[in-house]
Design brief:
The structure is a single chain. This protein has 141 residues and is an alpha+beta fold. Strand 10 (133-134) and strand 11 (137-138) form a beta hairpin. The radius of gyration is 18 Å and the shape is globular. Helix content is 14%, strand content 34%. It is built from two helices and eleven strands; from the N terminus they run H-H-E-E-E-E-E-E-E-E-E-E-E. Strands 5-1-2-3-9-6 form a six-stranded mixed sheet, with no helix packed on it. A three-stranded antiparallel sheet has the order 4-11-10, with no helix packed on it.
């Protein structure tokens, strides 16, 4: 009986853990203006460097061709809703020996599904993603 009770408690704890972000989570994230100060790329991703009044951020965006869009410009500010990449587990390669436990920030690199490793840099808060950027285009909500 004691084991059964422990099993039920463990099951409740496991089921209460959140594994991915939903559309409503992203909509409930506050919007802040970020200045784009650098754009780089690695394999199939753009790395957009942005900053607010206090911190610098690295935002990851999958490369996509958009012909008619509001293309990101260096030194412009954009209202973005960013979330830590560690909370978007569907982007990770779980077979990689460097697979990041999404609840731990102890590793400095995130192994992505296409064998790309994206790493946190000195002076950068973390690596983020956003629905407001597709490729190099700003998308209004």
């Amino acid at each position: 009986m004691k084991n059964y009770f422990l099993f039920i408690i463990l099951l409740i704890l496991v089921m209460s853990c959140k594994t991915t972000y939903t559309e409503s989570d992203i909509k409930n994230t506050s919007t802040t203006f970020y200045e784009i100060y650098k754009i780089d790329s690695i394999k199939n991703y753009y790395i957009i460097y942005a900053k607010d009044e206090r911190l610098k951020f690295k935002i990851l965006s999958k490369k996509q061709n958009q012909y008619k869009c509001d293309k990101l410009k260096i030194n412009n500010k954009y209202p973005l809703q960013i979330l830590p990449l560690s909370l978007n587990p569907q982007m990770f390669d779980s077979t990689s020996p460097n697979y990041l436990n999404r609840y731990s920030h102890s590793l400095l690199c995130y192994p992505l599904k296409d064998s790309t490793n994206v790493c946190v840099e000195t002076g950068i808060a973390d690596i983020y993603f956003t629905k407001n950027i597709v490729g190099l285009c700003f998308v209004k909500n």
